[in-house]
Structures are given as structure tokens and as C-alpha cells.
Amino acid sequence: MPVTGLAGPVVALAAGGSSADGIASTCAVTETGGAQCWGANSLGQLGDGTTTDRLVPVDVIGLGSGVVAISNDDDHACAVTSLGDVFCWGNNNNSQLGDGTTTQRNSPVRVVGLAAAVDVAAGDDHSCALTATRSVFCWGGNTQGQIGDGTTTTRPSPTEVLPNAVALALGDSHSCAVTSDGAVWCWGRNGNGECGDGTTTERHSPVGVVGLRTTVTRVDLADEFTCAVLSDLTAQCWGRNTSGELGDATTTSRAMPVDVMGLIDVGSISAATGSVGHACAATGTMTIRCWGANGDGELGDGTTTTRLAPVDVVGFP
Fold first, then answer.
1. Checking DSSP bridges between strand 67-72 and strand 136-140, what pairing results, if any?
2. Domain spanning 185-317 has what CATH number?
């Protein structure tokens, strides 16, 4: 069913939270560079200056044009403008908005001390940005080392974490980045091996993912697992696997990458956060394939059966 009320064709989409936690919201960037959001808004995460839930898209205040990237999680969101500035809004209890305060913001505020950003990612209570000079900067909550600066100290403003990066993604309490040589580095919570270094030791600074079959082009994170698209257009995942979210036909958690079974010609991948997980991939044959938890039909295969390996989404146009 089409989303009504969008100001034009959409070029980027970000979904945060889940219906289970009651704070699900979605944000989009339109073809003209405007940001719009809809869904739950109890903490100002829609950025429209209110805390009123919205059933249709509303404009994010001050971001009617010039937005080039957007990301949101449960209760906050961030966007990058064409000038390289990062703006965030919503919950700020752990300084995840990067404005130097812990004040909730119902409309966007500029992240201080950050310039020339090209991408941004929002985690549960932290945020990270990638700059034009390929540096990763993070700020916000850091109780499990998810900022990556070697400490567990909350950071109210951006802290440089990793050089030479070309892509990044955040989970609830862990973070990962792809470097220009195709390696993946992760940090933060690691109780299920989601940092991919062969251990379950919490990491307060970046560690290299071991056992990748070849170089990586992009990565996506969920609550306690991580998935990557490899340069040979296959996919590998690691971390929690209680619902088959790694796609290796088992429910065994993995501290190192395993192949997602039967998945080829992968263009992009998305890992979904929650108490149980699932993931989906878009392929070059214009199909969507998903795996993992399926109690609410989230895999789109016409069933509510958990799938330990990828299945096709049916009826996708």
C-alpha cells in the first residue's frame, strides 16, 4: 500500500524501532531533498516540533531541502545536508543528538564540532557520521564501548574513532565500518559475537572482523547481529542466531562470519532490530529474499514460519 502524503518521489528511506516497542517511526528523503517522517513521536523523533504521533508524513522542521542522507532508530533521527552539516532530533538522554546537551529536541539541532559529513547512522543511544575525509566520528551513550574511543564514557559531542572508512552502520549498542581496503571494523557490545572478531568480549575500540571470505562493500547491523555484502555479491552474517537471523540454516550464534545460504547477486542487505531478528536482501534479479524470525509475517513469504535460510518475498512488484 503506497504511503500517502509524501511531498514527492523518495530517494532514501530509514525505519526505526518496531511495533513491539510502541515507538516505531519512519523517515524519508524526497527527490527534492526534503525530509519527512511519520509514526510514533512521543520523544520528538519526527522532528515536526511536536510530540504528536503522525499517521501520514510530516515535514521535518528546517529540512525542506538539501538533505542527502537520513537515519533513525527507536527514538531519535539524524540527517546530513548537502553542506556537510549533520542535524539530529528526538530523544537526547545520552547526548545522542550531539548538541552538547541532554535536552530532548522536537526539531532538528546541529551536531557541534562536525564538518564535511557525507553519511550518518543512528543507533539506540548513540550516533556516528562519516566525513568526506573518510573519518568516522561518534557521540552519545557509551556504556558498552559503542562510541569506540577506548572508554565507556558518554560523549556529548563527536569523537573521532576510525580513519579511512567508506561506509558505516550502527546497531543498538555496537557499531561497524567498512574501510577502503574492504575490511570491516566493529566495536561495542559483543556478547553474541556481533563484532565478528572470534570472541564475545566487549570491545571499546575498533577490532577487525576475521574470517570474511573476501572484501566487503557494505554492512548493516541489528540489535545483536551483523550482515555484510561482499564484493562477489554474496552475503555473510555473524552474531546472534536464535531465530536463524544469520541465514546459515542453523540457530547457532557465530562470533565469525558465516555464509547466508543460497544468496547470490546481492545488491543490498538490511538487518532488523528486535528481541528476535530477521534480515532481507535485494538481488540483481529484482527479488527480495528474507530469513529469520517470522512470527508476524515479517519475511513476506505468506507464512509465519521462522526461516533459517533465505526465502523469496511473494507478490513483490
1. unpaired
2. 2.130.10.30
